Amino acid sequence: MEKITSLQNKKVKEWCALHQKKQRDLTNQYLVEGKHLLQEAIKAKALECVLYVKENPFPDYPSYEVSQEVLNKVSMRQSDGDVIGICRRLEHQPTSNKRLLLLDEIQDPGNLGTLIRSAVSFQFDGIYLSEGCCDVYNEKVIQSTQGAFFHIPIVRMSLIDAIISLKKEGVKVIGTSLQESLPMKQLERYDKMAFLLGNEGKGVSKELLTLTDQNVRIEMAGFESLNVAVAGGILMYQYQEES
Amino acid sequence: MEKITSLQNKKVKEWCALHQKKQRDLTNQYLVEGKHLLQEAIKAKALECVLYVKENPFPDYPSYEVSQEVLNKVSMRQSDGDVIGICRRLEHQPTSNKRLLLLDEIQDPGNLGTLIRSAVSFQFDGIYLSEGCCDVYNEKVIQSTQGAFFHIPIVRMSLIDAIISLKKEGVKVIGTSLQESLPMKQLERYDKMAFLLGNEGKGVSKELLTLTDQNVRIEMAGFESLNVAVAGGILMYQYQEES
Questions:
Q1: What is the pTM of this model?
Q2: So what's the pLDDT on residue A119?
Q3: Which of A16, A64, B43, B80 is the most buried (most CB within 10 A)?
Q4: Are B12 and B4 in contact (CB under 8 A)?
Q5: At B236, is the secondary structure helix, strand, or coil?
């Protein structure tokens, strides 16, 4: 196939459109960048095609050779990249519910990605995102997961419905809140636990906090404010399943 | 004073130059944005002057009324802001060394800001940054600290010198490393502790790891990778001074 060099090429326009959530929703596709993330996408059977400059690291997949200018146009990065993958969305349901994360309106892609990465590191079984969370197929999210993105089921749904259904299955749902909450160290361990974290500015919505089994706060000697990805990391570390 | 409306104004050019580390180093000044951060800067006696559009929230300080266009030019944000402060650098030495953070070549401003925020939340006494860490006066760093920036002494110096000198003062220096390290839960508490965290890609440099009293790893059931700000948050939470 001929090398694509024109920024006006129809394919190039289609790829660039994947920077927008609307287009990702429409096509069920998203972009990942860099060799490491493409390798992870391959393991997860999500890779559909490859755009590369000069050498193709994944010749077994449908591929397009493109100029550096075209690749940079499709890329979200500042510096020259060399390979971008077009992936297909695959939504899996968690197959176990021993350790889950529930995320209510997380807005920052870096925070969402970091939470996904920690959830995989602490071997959580799945993540439920509220409708108001930022799009998980956003490239900054995928980049911040450092590949972990492909290793955990992530489901977007109403957290009210998720909490009600998890409680019926015997999962203890633990909210996070600075008010009317138990110091985290007093929280017991349960066989099945789900941890609910909230928006960067507002925290977990009041409505959801009334549905949980228990609300906890992370004990702090000083200034009462933690980044949500840090708070989530501390909780997941502390309550990961013991091996 | 007359309202500044021209992007060519000499003052506007000077303020914009503060986006560059070189200029910040030269003038000893830096920018902060938004009412909350300016209030924190005032408490820390760091605010020198105010740029505002329409209403001045801090009329007791030297102020410049500017057009929205000028403010946006000086701002690092995408959306319209309303107030920016020019601050003066004030370096303080930690006055206690019971709990310290040592940061080796942290590159990402968001990670550095989040680590500073957690350190203040867990009432750490100070932070030492290696020469290779990103500039702490970078606006993204200050933004990510959510105001905590002004509440903790931060010193940039050789970490080799810092570790040698802290050990002489009886501070236990704890490195972080996945290799040849103790699981964190086996680490004792000491009266004086300093925690050493490293670069996002490479971790703590080998040379520094040989100088520590002990190296630890955060136990993970799954994928062995955590964001450095999450790892730092877990350590600081666990070993904060008990009140």
A1: 0.93
A2: 97
A3: A64
A4: yes
A5: helix
Closest CA to B137 of B104, B194, B197, B91: B91
DSSP-derived 3-state class of residue B165: helix
Among chain B residues, CA nearest to A241: B221
> Which of B123, B221, B227 minimises the CB distance to A122?
B221
Residue A78 DSSP one-character state: S
Backbone angles phi, psi at B203, to 5 degrees: 75, -165
Distance of alpha carbon B54 from alpha carbon A93, whole angstroms: 52
Quick one: DSSP state of residue A187? P
Structural domains of chain A ordered from first start: 10-88 (3.30.1330.30), 99-239 (3.40.1280.10)
Rounded alpha-carbon distances, angstroms, from residue A195 to A225, B58, B178, B224: 18, 41, 26, 21
In a 10 Å sphere around its CB, with 0-12 CB exposed, 13-18 middle and 19+ buried, how is residue B239 labelled?
Answer: buried
Amino acid type, B165:
S
Q: Do A121 and B224 touch (CB under 8 A)?
A: yes
Report how far apart, in Å, the C-alpha atoms of A163 and of each of A120, A225, B46 are.
21, 26, 46
Over residues A184-228, the pLDDT tens digits come to 999 999 999 999 999 999 999 999 999 999 999 999 988 678 999
Q: What is the ipTM of this complex?
A: 0.92
- E strand residue ranges, chain A: 29-33, 47-52, 63-65, 83-88, 99-103, 126-129, 154-156, 172-176, 182-183, 193-197, 214-217
Sign of the C-alpha dihedral computed for residues A78, A232, A121 and A124 taken in this order? negative
